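In this section we walk through a basic example: taking a raw amino acid sequence and producing a predicted 3D structure, encoded as discrete structure tokens. The instruction is simple. Fold the sequence below.
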Amino acid sequence: MKIVSTFVQPSSVTSSVKCSLTPEAELGHLVVAKASCIEVSSITAEGLNHECSLEIWGRVLSVKAVPAKDPSASNLLVLLDHPHPKLLLLGYKTQDGVSALSTLWHSDLQDRYARHAEFFTGIVTSAFGEVAVVSCYVGKLKVIAFNEGKVSNEFDVILPELNLLSLAFVETDTETYTLAILHIDHLRRVQLLARDLDIGDADLSITPSRHLQRAILASSSFPDTDNPLVLVPVPSFSLRPSPSGEDVQCLGGVFVLGGRKIIFVEAATIDQQHREKGKEKRQQQRKSSTSERVQRQAKQKEKEREAKKVKSKAAVKWPWSEVTAWCPADDDGRRFFIGDIFGRLSMLTITDTPELILLPIGEISAPTTLSYLSSQVLYVGSHTGDAQILRIHATAQSDIDRDTLPIPSGITTVHPTSLSADPRSSPSLDDDDIEMESVDDKKAGKAGKIVALKGTHIEVLDRFRNLAPILDAVLADTDESGQPQIVTCSGGANTGALNVIRTGADFQELAVLKEFPNVARIFSIRNSFEEQSDTHIILSTLHESHILRIDGRDTLTRLESGSSALATDQPTLALANVARRVQRTGPTGPVSAYADSAYVVQITPKGINLLEFDTILGVFNRVGAGWTPEQGSSKRPREIVAASVNASQFVVALNGGTIILLNLGFDGMLNVVKSREFPGREISAVSCAPLDSSKAYTSYIAVAFWGENNVQLLSLKDQHSLLEPFCTSPSLPALPCSVILHNFGTVAKSKDPNFHPYVVVGLADGSVATLSIQGKELKELKLFPLGAAPVSLNVTEVDGRRMVFASGSRTAVFYWERQRLMQSSVMMKDVAFGASLNATHFPSCQILATSSSLHIGQIRGIDKMQVRSVKLGMQVPRRIAYHSGYNVFGVVCTNVVPHRVGESEMSGSSFNLIDGVMMTDLSQFNCETDEDVTAVKSLSGSSISASAAFCVGTLRAQVGEREPSLGRLLLFEISGPAKDLKLISSREVDGCVYAIDAVNGLIAAAVNTSVDLYAVIHDEESESTTLKRVARWNHNYFVTSLVAKDDRLIVGDGISSVSVLQVKGHGLETIARDYTPLWPQCVEGVKDKGVIGANVDCNLFTFSIADTDGGRKRLERNGYYHIGDVVTKFIPGSLSVQDTQHDLNQTFEPEHVFFTSSGRIGVVAHVSEDVALALTDLQRNMAAVIVGPGDVNHSKWHTPSNARGTSDADQAVGFLDGDFLEQFLTYDNPDTLLKGKSRPERVRMEREKMEEVLEKLQSLH
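The resulting token sequence is shown next.
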């Protein structure tokens, strides 16, 4: 059984809308739709404030605002995409300061017998949102009418236009609604027409409406493109008064976007409609005439009218690429923001002449959605780049000497000052433009103006990271920290990027001191106990101590040993500022209290020193004689081996198993309060940290022992008894070398739910043990591996929260979050010790000691994903491989050149070598003009060749080919200290190289329909390297996936299914095949020689190899599960470092990390059989209680689907939903989920055990 959990949620933005969800919202709300959720943010003067989000079990395609019951507020209409198309009406409520979205209405749109809409699937709404029309299938529309926030009517209508490109409501002066329809007719012409929509009769007019001119769009202005055209509704507005002084009204209409020209088609006037009605009547009379000649003339006239080109009221050339998003820039509907596929943003304005003016603004992320917020602030949502909040300025903000956007040389532009001239004048068109554009358009409407501006007029106020689409990825440990990082190939168009992703906290380094190697402990002290800022740092090695004074951001002064009474000739075990004990008069008599003091206590192996800081001289002076251990009759001298200090108490452990508690008397003398002998035992570590940080003393002491591998808690509550042990930990897996008492909560009262006392133990084997103090027991032992080096512990403050800092081979902080103890890795390795530092020049910092230096900085981003983006712009990374020997990445990039609509796209392909640490370019190999790199494989760790580092596969594009017939295999080596790429071998192949892998010292390549094996032959005499094909297996349609696992090859046929081959010598043998039409997208191997993969229908599947009755092998599908996203890559491994030496029977065994086109990153883990049964029962019980928005059943949502939807015969098997199961930890009444609805449904696992299992699952991602 596998379990699927999400590490990074989808980040691709599909739709957005600005609206007011509550009447109280002054500036409104921004609603953003991502692949699997809806996010709501309130708009404030300071920016966006996240209010709530709603997880959707489906793929969100579009979101629109529709009227709520209160006319000043809105509800949300959400469309879910195939294979589960659905409409959701969501309402927004705020109660007790908590905001939430809830389902008000829903409708299932699925039709198993209809064909999916090919060009346009989405929602359009009327001007005020009271009617919405949904296109989901060919030849039909869903119409929804709203009244007082509810659905008053819903019905389907037949749409004669099958190849629908776009829809828009046209403003009319009648009570009916009119839909503008743009479609491709049976002659492959783009046609614009309108139909009337009657809500009362629930019907769409059979004959085209007269409200909009029916015409053909000129193919020269609107050529066939990959992106369909877009209709934009324009409301009515007043035109410039006529020469006679009469007011002239434009009735509105539609813009047609997406071609080489933007045209404005005006709605017909009443007189025009009457004339059109008369023409239709006369035409109908001629067609029904008894004269055949008249009938023929009528039919010929009708054909001529159908072929009539559109007469636009106004037009302007569009100089850039396909339009992908637009939004109105004001409430009047006269200005619009338009963005193209390469992120070039412009503003379109229609004047009152009317005339179209196009103003370039600047470059943004390639938009999928635009939403104007207010005050020239614009939201940009993108699939290929970061989402952005922009402010549009009237003046240039940067690059003032460069064109705002590049405009092709054949297009005429005007200077901004010319806009003040007579707007009725049009810039002339040169001969080239006349040839390319429609002459009809030139005669019918104005040519419009494109303004030539300088500099970018955009200010980026905020950005929201987007990893989509993830085309490829690798796991790499580039800094050898043991903590792998993910490197993804992301982005597209103008936003190509390599994203380096790590889990855990980031350490922002501020200063480095290299003069102090081998520091074992660090202590920061202040001038007095109640001071807030540290002034000195004490460094202790195993043999001596050093004193540093903080004089500035760039100056730390080392104090000589003779200038201070601090002992520097021996190591410091503990050191801290302490309070002065005073006696005050209380209600019942004298009471002990604590006051500010300049005292500092230093504990060394020889004893305890009490010091006082002299603020005038700036030195530490000794107070009293201190305290030294009494030497007994034993020949072995007594010395302190471990120590701990709090504000008023000092605990020392002597060799021989003695522990002593001391405090500071009223006279400033050190007094022994209690002691205890542990005969025959040696103490390794002690802690007297108060569980209540507001108090100056503790009631418990934690003691760790060598040999016995356990920790005891000693009680100080009874003043008359010795230090009595009252609880002992279970046996620990290794020697405890450090221990600390810590309350991870914020309250010290034991009955308060926010009181979380723990004993944290650093072990010698490199792991951390945590135990919860529950009454008189230590429970919930948990182990966190941090490598192999012994772990030291300390308390630090990060982002205002007190946490436990653990350092060893790797570094981590422990804190309380989501009702459980959590660990977050820190991006520093081999840290011997860490301490807090809060100095004037280094506020809220940490100081970390490595073997060679000290590092001062700040820990930031606890429990967050740390992403470092390497922006590549127009270089879009497609494939990536990591070579650990050279610590470099081999990255395949496609270099895209922006083009104008209708022009051929120019692109190039290259193979780039990038440094693994700095992520900078080292070398580049550029392919030939007709060649694209399609695959790359690192040969690190293989026995293929001593010199070859990467193998690259290419495709040669030949004009007119339907199937590629030529490609190349290239071998590269890395030469010289500069790490240059050197081509050492090239071999032509008869097709496209879709995938490459290394197996048994050979190179396996997927070439069109075959799997080929190549041997690398090195001729030492000629010093040449060649590739020789030694085997071919040709039994597929298209081999698009190829993965090597041991001596096996897993083959994914993009049209058929999966095969498993075995490499024997230089030959290939079939082990097993599956023949079902699965359409796999990517495959990978799993343990027990199985297969995991994903297909184009967003399903995960697994296969195991089984025996048939005849003794042959076959692939048996044992897992099938709908994930709702296109998985592009599986990588064997884990996001976190796993150490199994303490848990041989792991509950979850991470197997793969997967990546999707929407930016999702997830984990697939194997579940042990006993736990899998309990989790299956729990998921069944939860699915019966928890339903998704729109009453979507969890089991139905994950049922495997195809283009036609789900089959009643199929069900999800072999996979569990980890994200869904983790909701058990936050469910209000989890016991009901365990009980089920009947006795047989009861989950046979206790609640505490189930919570422990699910917490382990959470730790994997």
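Looking at the output, two observations stand out. The longest strand covers residues 98-108. The two ends are 18 Å apart (CA to CA). In the next section we compare this with other chains.
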